[in-house]
Amino acid sequence: MKKNTTLLIFILLYSFQLISQNQIFINVKNSDGNNLKNSIIHLTPAVNYSINVSNGLYQLSNIPNGNYKLSLTHLGFKDIHEAITINNKDLELSYILEDDLLNLETVIITGNFSPKSKLQSSTSVSTLHKNNLSKIAPRGTAQILQTVSGMFTDASAGEVFTRVYTRGVSASAEDDMGWYYISLQEDGLPISLIQHSYYAPDIFYRNDITTTKLEAIRGGKTSITSMNAPGGIFNFISNGKRNALGGEIQLQSGVQNNNNMLYRIDATIGSPLGNSWFFNAGGHYRHDDGARNTNFTFSKGGQLKFNLRKENDNGYFKFYGKFLNDKTNRYTGVAARNWNDPTPAFGQNFNSMALMMPEFKTKIPDGRNLTSSNTFNPAQGVHAKDYAFGLDLFQDLNNSWSIKNNIKFSAKIANWQTSISNAFVSLNNPLAYFITGAQFPVGEVVFRDTQSGSEIARIDNSGILSGESFLYLTDGRLPNDAIMGTSTWLKNNTADELIQQLTLSKQLKSHNLDFGLASGFSKTSVFTQGSFGFVTYDTNPKMLFVTLENPDQPVVTLSDENGISNYGGLFFGNSRANITQLAAFANDSWDLTNKLNLDFGLRFESITHKGSNDRYEPFSQEGGLDENPLTDYDNGILTPSGEIDEFNSTYNYISYSAGINYKSSNHTALFGRYSKGNKAPELNYYFNNFSNVPINEKGEIQKIHQIEIGLKSSLKHISVAGTLFYSQLENIGSSNFEFDNANNSIFYTPIQFNSSETFGLEWESVYAPINNLRFIFNGTLQNPKTKSWTLYEASGTADAADDSITDYSGNTLPFNPKLMFNMTTEYNLKAFSSFMTWHFMGKREANVANAFQLPAYSIFDLGLEYKITKNMTASLLITNLFNSEGLANFYGINSFGASANGTTKSYIEENPDASFIVVPVLPWGSILKLSYTF
To answer: With left for phi above 0 and alpha for psi between -120 and 50, is residue 845 left, alpha or beta?
Structure first.
């Protein structure tokens, strides 16, 4: 009897439970009435339920009776949060999602210890999703970032050798180290720990179809969430898991400027592998003749990326990797005249000209070991290799604890073979002959084409030392009566790096606590060697074989058969270093109310640089390396002297940041933040500033103070995000690269420590008056100033007797425009979509002396896209539609070894017709793209 009663009770309870299992049917559409797939639905409190999705209709089954909060999110649309009650009855719900025009509801993982939506975050953040990235021409990382508000980007040199900075925090972001304050990241970790001349993170990053999203954080909280990069974080996030087999293939072909071709293929594929395993892989290969005219392929190569993900009930772990093998070059400047309205000089062209050494192959003796040599071909540019592997893990633990750890090992090689400088050197300038390293190359000098061997010009320079002009001895002439002041630039960099970040999080009732450790270890080396190159100063530069052929005397060769002279005599650097970066951080995100959030974080960082530089001296042997007194080109090679200058410096600092966010409504929030950050010196401090001298002191830590107040709001037809900011940078060490004409040596001037400040407003906005039309407007208005600034004037010699210091305090910071913006119009109609973007760059001071201004310029980009079938899309991208001739950079007067800061107002007044070096923006280019998704 008892058994029967128990069985009956069990059956009744089970039947009641079955009866109380309900279903929810949810139909999700956009404002056009189209069903939306890929929505994310959550019920709180969490219950075990199954979900079935069919073309925008979501069926949630096995829902017990109770009260729930339903949350529905979809990328590009505003979230839905609604209280529902289930009581023995199925629910049918229907939602029309409003456009989230600025993606303010998108969850951000960069710059936040715990993921937050852009609206909830008290930081200034921008996002570019895959559809945004696909509308940008593949001309490098800086080209992508120019579409982000608050950013100054200089992509005039090409894919690498670029400059990127925010909010006037720019002083040490030089041409050859343009990411000084910025952390360029891939999947949450820095691409590289180190920077120095010609070694920056953009060398090792190529955007392609494997990237699904860019998160860009400017200033503020980056002081406590990144490694030694208080200016900003730009994190490119790779494709994640796919719930079904699928992928995409893109074929691209383009024409740039003077019929220079581009060919490229991108592909990606992903799939579940069963038992909660997911796989994704992809990459690209390209062949690019370049945006300017060269006689060699400007870029070629590609990469392969992959990730393998395993999920469990408490989280996931992901194994990922990248293989990059890529060659690209960088453009140097061209000559201009007219300081008030620069125009091309010497027959050059701002759109098509690339004043660089032509392609040739040679071997130059290695100053470190004179029995060996280095292959040199200026067509190679920088050959970048990066082999990286990482493991990313996240797990929920007991008692509301969670752990996340991301660790990556990479082996990097960057081998530069290119030319440096392209200055005008008159045949009346003794430098044209004495830079060869020869003792007295005066008399009858003959210039021959290295390719044909034919004589181009024969001159007599015997009067130049007494101020007389050279004389042509035959009808042959050198273009512009000059040669190019240029050098071979061989630079071999290696780095093995291990980077890791561990975060422990604890959720309390109103607090979200995060604690963590970050570490980075790098073993790096760099070798630099420079030799003079005899090149015509012409729109089509040619290498010159040069000899001294005085009557009744043996012929003396001033260059080898390839036109290279003064083997290894212009530059020598051989350095190595071990870098250790350790950090501990803590952050509390405190919900004071359901609308008001306060967060405060601290970061202690310790950076140790331990390494050494080789001292050097000219190789002393009668007749030079080959012991032949008639070959002057090998007489001055620089070799190690045997002395080594060591350094071992540790930089300890604490950074902190506090922010407050007030969510006044579901779609509007105000925030404010104060941050105090630090920037330890990079390796260039030791490698550049202590050439052949003892390293007698460590560098100064730059201090950065930032205040920002912002508004984010998403209404029905318009979304706006604006931030008022103030940034102050202190202890800026600045030094100029100089050339001593007296002894043909290159040196850096003594370091001056300066400060700057910038007030400004950055904004993003989208206006959508109708469903098919959008107007996008973002930009920056700022006032960048030198707070206190001095410049060391070396007067053209390494001798300090005639040196002076000039005060430029209160001047406008160079290269920081007071106004820059992007304005885009997008129009979509069924299978057709289009956009046009206006990029405006305001006038910029070209140096700290404010002696010369780079004019404002505008660039227009156009995009057209047509969806041929459900799976196939064709698109056309045109960048710089009207071939604008904007000037992005300034290198100083047109003289070998000159620098931008050497040009003063008095010099311009005294030399109104002088030529100078500028770097124009990249010219027109078009790309036709065919995409197939499956």
So the answer is: beta
